[in-house]
């Protein structure tokens, strides 16, 4: 039986908004808003600004691993236009969206690749950000086809080499007072490229392992859904 457009949309929405997912979303959202409201009651707007809102508008004029640091450094005293803010946010948002739709059912792997991509394309990147995805690495290693012979070692040395290269220029700038902003910015571009290359290799060598059970969805055409 052929499915028309409206029926297809209905089946698609029914496969997404299951009862368990709605309960999970309502409970999670309620806990978040209750705890946030409680902290807001005690600490006021300072809490909202420091805990949540600040991270939406944060700009750091000091050098960091991000490819945006040099532009922010040059224009820090000026007000950034909405277009500039959108341009810096859009690549990160698009990559996150693609990863969510592609790996949503393999949750541990989705968490990992999302975190790596979020850090790599962020407006501010410092070394402690790497801990965010390092702590998720043990969850995906058993399902990776990469080993410590060729691909694995190549990715490790490339990532560490790009980071060390950036740190060399940062040392010359910070401790030697050298005017190496351009070189440091180019090192940031190289570091982004290395992160992207490593992430692509991790994705290509990952054994897809859904954590949801496949259930039958009783419709006229016997479609299936994940729950």
TrEMBL record:
Residue ranges crossing the lipid bilayer per the database entry: 21-43, 93-113, 125-144, 180-200
GO terms of molecular function: alpha-1,4-mannosyltransferase activity; GPI mannosyltransferase activity
GO-annotated biological processes: GPI anchor biosynthetic process
Bilayer disposition of the protein: Multi-pass membrane protein
Major localization listed first in the record, in broad terms: endoplasmic reticulum
Transmembrane keyword on record: yes
Keyword annotations of the record: Endoplasmic reticulum, Glycosyltransferase, GPI-anchor biosynthesis, Membrane, Transferase, Transmembrane, Transmembrane helix
Any one annotated GO CC term: glycosylphosphatidylinositol-mannosyltransferase I complex
Pathway linked to the protein: Glycolipid biosynthesis; glycosylphosphatidylinositol-anchor biosynthesis
UniProt subcellular location: Endoplasmic reticulum membrane
EC number(s) recorded for this UniProt protein: 2.4.1.-
Keyword Signal: no
Known function: Catalytic subunit of the glycosylphosphatidylinositol-mannosyltransferase I complex which catalyzes the transfer of the first mannose, via an alpha-1,4 bond from a dolichol-phosphate-mannose (Dol-P-Man) to the glucosaminyl acyl phosphatidylinositol (GlcN-(acyl)PI) intermediate to generate alpha-D-Man-(1->4)-alpha-D-GlcN-(1->6)-(1-radyl,2-acyl-sn-glycero-3-phospho)-2-acyl-inositol and participates in the sixth step of the glycosylphosphatidylinositol-anchor biosynthesis.
Family stated for the protein in its record: Belongs to the PIGM family.
Full protein name: GPI mannosyltransferase 1
Organism expressing this protein natively: Olea europaea subsp. europaea
């Amino acid at each position: 039986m052929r499915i028309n457009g409206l029926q297809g949309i209905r089946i698609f929405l029914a496969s997404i908004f299951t009862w368990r997912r709605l309960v999970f979303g309502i409970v999670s959202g309620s806990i978040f808003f209750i705890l946030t409201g409680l902290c807001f009651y005690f600490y006021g707007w300072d809490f909202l600004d420091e805990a949540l809102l600040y991270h939406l508008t944060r700009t750091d004029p000091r050098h960091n691993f991000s490819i945006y640091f040099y532009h922010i450094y040059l224009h820090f005293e000026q007000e950034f236009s909405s277009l500039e803010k959108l341009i810096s946010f859009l690549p990160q948002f698009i990559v996150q969206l693609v990863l969510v739709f592609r790996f949503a059912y393999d949750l541990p792997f989705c968490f990992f690749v999302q975190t790596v991509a979020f850090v790599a394309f962020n407006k501010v990147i410092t070394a402690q950000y790497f801990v965010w995805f390092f702590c998720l690495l043990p969850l995906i290693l058993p399902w990776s086809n990469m080993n410590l012979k060729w691909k694995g070692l190549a990715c490790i040395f490339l990532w560490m080499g790009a980071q060390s290269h950036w740190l060399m220029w940062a040392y010359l700038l910070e401790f030697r007072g050298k005017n190496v902003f351009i070189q440091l910015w180019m090192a940031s571009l190289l570091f982004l490229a290395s992160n992207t290359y490593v992430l692509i290799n991790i994705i290509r060598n990952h054994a897809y392992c859904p954590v949801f059970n496949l259930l039958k969805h009783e419709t006229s055409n016997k479609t299936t859904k994940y729950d």
